[in-house]
Amino acid sequence: MLPDLTTAPLLLIAIAIGSYLLGSIPFGVVITKAMGLGDVRAIGSGNIGATNVLRTGNKPAALATLLLDAAKGAVAVLIARAVAGEDAAQVAALMSFLGHLFPVWLGFKGGKGVATFLGTLLALAWPIGLACCATWLVALAVTRISSASALVASAAAALYLWIWGPQSLIALAVVLAALVWVRHAANIARLMNGTEPKVGRKKS
How deeply is 159 buried, as exposed, middle or buried, from its count of CB atoms within 10 A (0-12, 13-18, 19+)? Predict the structure, then answer.
């Protein structure tokens, strides 16, 4: 089930572009460089997300990256909803997420989208967003593996929406979750052969 398209096409395009640019801000790179931690793309997995920032050993930097990556998705959704409506909010969610995955500032080589995914869900339907955040935390506590918790939480989103609604968000949740899983292809391979590192382990 998809939302009714009620926003004027030109406004929708403007919201899409603005949301993409907001989502493409690489906070992991900005924060690590600003804090003198070097370029996060040169350590560990090379990813710009909070998990790889944590491999610098700086927990405040990792937390700031997590919160800001989530916030950019949430802010894009909230602005779009205020300016237009629910259809624009979903477009903003998708485009801010794609901005994080494929940021123009980094040659379209971005992160895996987990924090931004959760941020958009919190703004779109906060009870579902909270349920997914709780799922992520529980899975992380059990496995101590960031990728496993991300995969579980993203897959749970559509299920939670199907049970509790709004069902107009299910299609978007499925698309975003599928992209999260695609971006975690290498992690899935390591999970299957038992070599995926646990949270907090540094990589050279």
Answer: middle
